[in-house]
Amino acid sequence: MKIREIRATPVNIPFVAPYRFSYGSIASLTKTVIELQTEDGVVGLGECADGDRSAEVEAMGTRLVGQDIRLVAEAAQYCVPGMAYSPWDNVLARKRAFAGIEMAMWDARGKTEGVPLWHLLGGKWRDQIALTEYFAFRRPGADHPGEATPVEIARFCADMIDQHDARIFEGKLATVDFATEIEMVREVRAAIEDRDLRLDANGGWTLPTARRAIRALEPFGVSWFEEPVESYEEMAALREVTAAGLSSHRIDLRRAVELGAPDAIVTNINELGGIAGAVQFIRSCAEFDIGFRFHSGETGVASSAYLHLSAALVPVRDASQTLFRWYGDDVIEGGPFVPKGGAVAVPEGPGLGVVLDPKALARCHQRYRDEGAFPSGEPGRRYGGSFCKV
């Protein structure tokens, strides 16, 4: 069960239509797919969620040759500084890179032992993982018209109900003028009837704007607001205007407990240092009655990992996020996942339960070489476009 080699490949996963959010618009997601081969010939898969980390991953890989894939804590000591901050190193970057390797170690172990990841984590509590259905203004893609008006977005949501029995809808705000967004929410509410409605501003509002916006949106029965503002302190100040849940991608459990906001933390496995770190963090959230969900945007590799974790950990009760419906490609056989009835089944098979498609990997890697990292969905612009809080 020892490591022989670690390879890393940057890829771009395209959207069928570039979507708009508070940072601008985006046409593809850049990820790093990791292949860890053991001395027994088993290949474990992992992923870094935050762009091209192939050089860092392969450099770490040379330190881990000969290490036992079961000893993830020991492997971390070879790769990640023990302090939270260093003036001589980027600790967060190392943590993210190692987390992708650690995921591959778990996958390789599951494949070696012939059991799924959820088995290694102590068993599973659920077979189907609930997911939200995203909606947003989307620019036209090569073979997709996108959605340019509130009515078109509402029609998309209605189609998702008719075609896939979607149950929970989550939409992007802080992208166009607020009058248009109010109309969008009104149309979507009518289209989805009494189904759960959540809204995500990606920190695009100031506190005064968020107060006005949330009051204006109150008639539409919004159950959650994701990052209506950026800081925990600002979220706590919004308690006076809404009883809806508040969630954030920022990770500071101690501060969340102190302030009583947000109600849930939404992140990925890399930000938590790997699967072992995610298990520990999720259990800590549960101790303090802070919710936890996984966010959207990984390939089928890391997405499979978060499905297994959601199955194995009781506290991950609420629907996590997904952009599966918007993906135009994936690196796994049979991908991307297709939610039905507002959920995806936990993958079967040992380890993560997914198989890398070599041709798809090569295709997605070439797309990264052609496009660069996180290409914008707007002609002539890189990722992010322009961003101005209102």
What do these coordinates show?
- The protein is α/β, with parallel strands linked by helices.
- The protein has two domains: 3-115 and 358-371, 2-Layer Sandwich (Enolase-like, domain 1); 119-345, Enolase-like C-terminal domain (TIM Barrel, Alpha-Beta Barrel).
- Helices cover 36% and strands 19% of the residues.
- The chain contains twelve helices and twelve strands.
- The strands form three sheets. It has a seven-stranded parallel sheet, covered by helices on one side. The chain has a three-stranded antiparallel sheet with strand order 1-2-3.
- Helix 6 (178-192) links the parallel strand 6 (168-172) and strand 7 (196-200).
- Mean pLDDT is 94; it is low at 383-388.
> Biggest β-sheet: count, sense, barrel?
7 strands, parallel
CATH architecture level-2 label of the largest domain: Alpha-Beta Barrel
Please tell me the overall pLDDT.
94
**Biggest β-sheet: strands ordered side by side in the sheet:** 5-6-7-8-9-10-11
Assign the CATH superfamily of the largest domain: Enolase-like C-terminal domain
What is the CATH first-level class name of the largest domain? Answer: Alpha Beta
Question: What characteristic shape results from the CA principal axes?
Answer: globular
How many discrete structural domains? 2
Order of helices and strands: EEEHHHHEEHEHEHEHEHEHEHEH
Task: Enumerate the spans where pLDDT stays under 50 for 5 or more consecutive residues.
Answer: 383-388
Alpha-carbon distance between the two ends? 54 Å
The helix content is: 25-40%
In terms of quaternary structure, what is this?
A: single chain
* Number of E strands: 12
Share in β-strands: 15-25%
CATH topology of the largest domain: TIM Barrel
Alpha-carbon Rg, integer: 20 Å
